[in-house]
Amino acid sequence: MTDNSEQRDYWTDAAGPKWLRHQAALDALMQPVLDGVLFRANLQSGARVLDIGCGAGNSTVQAADAVGPEGHATGADISETLLGGARNVAQGRDNVDFILADAARHEFAPQSFDNLISRFGVMFFADPEAAFSNMAKALKSGSIVTFAAWGQIPENPYFTYPAQAARAVLGATPKSDPDAPGPFAFRDPARVEAILSAAGLAEIGCDTQTVHLTPQGGIADFAELCLGIGPASMAITHFEADAAQIAALRDMVIDVFAPFDGPEGLRIPAQINFFTATKP
């Protein structure tokens, strides 16, 4: 099986601290996506839930709330940095725990979970077929798999607009392979459905929806978030941008997102693939 150590290092050393600095803003931004996952998962009272790529724990805690005190939610993530934040979020809860694990390799207790969920946590495996095959071993027969992944790149201005602004102000960063492990690796439903089928899952489906992301605060706050994590942040680091360049980039990010600012605040359209499957 292909090793995922590169992802472990990235989410522990580079991305993890950034994510924790912006954790509250990111959780608020992506709450509509998590709502979509939990709605489709239809978690039942008393169920045992495995949350893959749980990050800083918000999704795991909400799953635990859904299954109640008789149920249990286990969050698994490859980043000890993010799990430190997750343990703080879940402090005092008896029906939540977290494990440091590469879900593609970890030996989960066989047939121990009723549900597998993930909000943007399963697109990073070097060998996704092998990863899902391994995770499926942890599921009982009839268990439901539900996860969200970003859809087509042009339909997700949360990524494309900051990237375009950064190119205009700073220049082009090296191109990355969208099919490599990363945010858009699962943008093609047919490819993902084939992966899930090869991993032994059944009743596979994808519901592609336009969801509106809900940033906290005003547009200036959202611009700061974009400069702190994501394509604009990576460009700032790559080009070692100075204060004047960062200020110009901030202004451009505000300008490009202004059309999404309305009476209810910013509402940013995002194409999301909601996948479902069952363990035979």
Automatic annotation (TrEMBL):
<keyword id="KW-0808">Transferase</keyword>
<keyword id="KW-0830">Ubiquinone</keyword>
<keyword id="KW-0489">Methyltransferase</keyword>
<dbReference type="InterPro" id="IPR025714">
    <property type="entry name" value="Methyltranfer_dom"/>
</dbReference>
<dbReference type="GO" id="GO:0032259">
    <property type="term" value="P:methylation"/>
</dbReference>
<protein>
    <submittedName>
        <fullName>Ubiquinone/menaquinone biosynthesis C-methylase UbiE</fullName>
    </submittedName>
</protein>
<dbReference type="InterPro" id="IPR029063">
    <property type="entry name" value="SAM-dependent_MTases_sf"/>
</dbReference>
<dbReference type="GO" id="GO:0008168">
    <property type="term" value="F:methyltransferase activity"/>
</dbReference>
<feature type="domain" description="Methyltransferase">
    <location>
        <begin position="44"/>
        <end position="148"/>
    </location>
</feature>
<dbReference type="Pfam" id="PF13847">
    <property type="entry name" value="Methyltransf_31"/>
</dbReference>
